[in-house]
């Protein structure tokens, strides 16, 4: 089974591009995901995870996700390789998003009456569950 569940903050706005063969939208972004434990005397560390979202989910992410927002992503890990023009082999490990959620609490004055739901993916809207801790923006590594 290959299933990944992440919650973190976007390190940059999603970047959109289109495939050359069939013009399919793909959005790329990275999440800063805090590690669960902090060593005594050290600052909290984060892992920076690359995410790709295809088609409608990619469109949703590119339209509504912004740098610094806390989001949840459910997907699968994928590895790929390619050779550049100089013949150097490159390796990439990334998460292919299957579902994406807003994880920030509503801001003051936000009525929540937008034209979109609080989630996008292949399951019913809902929250990420009680296993996830929402931390303050003071923990941001950027």
List keywords for this structure.
142 residues; mainly beta; OB fold (Dihydrolipoamide Acetyltransferase, E2P); five-stranded mixed β-barrel; 7% helix
Can you tell me about this structure?
The chain has 142 residues and is mainly β. The protein has a single domain (4-139), classed as Nucleic acid-binding proteins (OB fold (Dihydrolipoamide Acetyltransferase, E2P)), CATH 2.40.50.140. It is 7% helix and 42% strand. It has one helix spanning 55-64, and strands spanning 4-10, 15-18, 25-34, 46-54, 70-83, 89-102, 119-120. The N and C termini lie far apart (33 Å). The model is unreliable at 111-117 and 123-137 (pLDDT under 50).
Count of discrete structural domains: 1
User: How far from one another are the termini?
Assistant: 33 Å
Described by strand count, sense and barrel closure, the largest sheet is: 5 strands, mixed, barrel
Which regions are unreliable across 5 or more consecutive residues at pLDDT < 50? 111-117, 123-137
Please tell me what the overall shape is: globular
Counting helices, strands and paired strands, the structural category is mainly beta
Q: And the CATH topology?
A: OB fold (Dihydrolipoamide Acetyltransferase, E2P)
Query: What is the top-level CATH class?
Result: Mainly Beta
Q: Could you give the count of β-strands? A: 7
The CATH architecture can be given as: Beta Barrel
Oligomeric state of the chains present here: single chain
CATH superfamily: Nucleic acid-binding proteins
Biggest sheet strand line-up: 1-3-4-6-5
**Helix run count:** 1
SSE sequence, one letter per element: EEEEHEEE
